[in-house]
């Protein structure tokens, strides 16, 4: 995948002289708090639930993609430091004013799912659908996608969604008398369709590596929802047998999972939902309850720590960690804040204005639908 000019700039950027690499974690945290106090309302630190504890402890707002998108849209701070992955920082830049700057705390933090769908590939698929006589189709992009894909969606009258509101967004789109093309996450799209009562026979997986998505004329005609075959590598670590194993080991345990999991895993769960939803379930549960949680390990470990009166475990025996989220450390945040305080901030994440304008349409439709 071709590198962007901004990625080249971020790689080439040399931060101002700092001894951040040599100080301890406690000293780093203390210096970050000092800098935040000094910068005051000029700086806002946003962190996703999947960040490590040491980063979350320093954040002003912690949440899932929907909550962080809203926080960015409502922010008045001139400097927004995003502890997450690149598509999240792009979304924040799109939703903020030109006078605000968004910095990705760790410039190398990307998202493999977002990289599974390029604009060129999507444009080709769109043309193939039209040539095959698929009828009216509207795009629905999971927010875990690039700004360019969000712009495609805005340009074609669709909207974005998060794991919190995927079913709502799909319902709105189908109510327009159209078929839906959901991307890049096949599994979330399938779960949303099932939630609306659509039979699996009315969904069709679009294989991004094959002509016409690998679909024959009948499958293309019968489908109401086309599902781009992307996925989250972390949530594919969970298996149906994991639920059975925990129920045998801990009778009465409740299994809850993220909707990026496969449908056969969700079928074995007691409930599913976004990271915000999963967190609320565990936090609100009575003492003594037991929970096997199917999502990224940093959030699961944090839920266990703040709920010592409950048993909270990862559903998977594997270490289900998001390597890209884990790239961000407190020292990553410190480097950005020191540079901002010194008046020599790193290059912000900037989405081309033409792309941002179209992407904003899709994001605003999502926020209105949520």
From TrEMBL:
The coenzyme or cofactor needed here is: [4Fe-4S] cluster
* Pfam families assigned: NadA (PF02445)
- What GO terms in the biological process aspect are recorded for it? 'de novo' NAD+ biosynthetic process from L-aspartate
Q: What class of enzyme is it?
A: transferase
Kindly list the GO molecular function terms attached to this UniProt entry. 4 iron, 4 sulfur cluster binding; metal ion binding; quinolinate synthetase A activity
Instruction: Establish whether keyword Oxidoreductase is in the entry.
Output: no
EC number from the UniProt entry: 2.5.1.72
Question: Which keywords are on file for this protein?
Answer: 4Fe-4S, Iron, Iron-sulfur, Metal-binding, Pyridine nucleotide biosynthesis, Transferase
Kindly state one GO CC term assigned in the UniProt record: cytosol
Signal peptide region: none
Q: In which pathway does it act?
A: Cofactor biosynthesis; NAD(+) biosynthesis; quinolinate from iminoaspartate: step 1/1
Query: PANTHER family given for it?
Result: QUINOLINATE SYNTHASE, CHLOROPLASTIC, QUINOLINATE SYNTHETASE A
- Quote the NCBIfam families the UniProt record gives: nadA, PRK09375.2-4
Name the record gives this protein: Quinolinate synthase
Report the source organism.
Solidesulfovibrio magneticus (strain ATCC 700980 / DSM 13731 / RS-1) (Desulfovibrio magneticus)
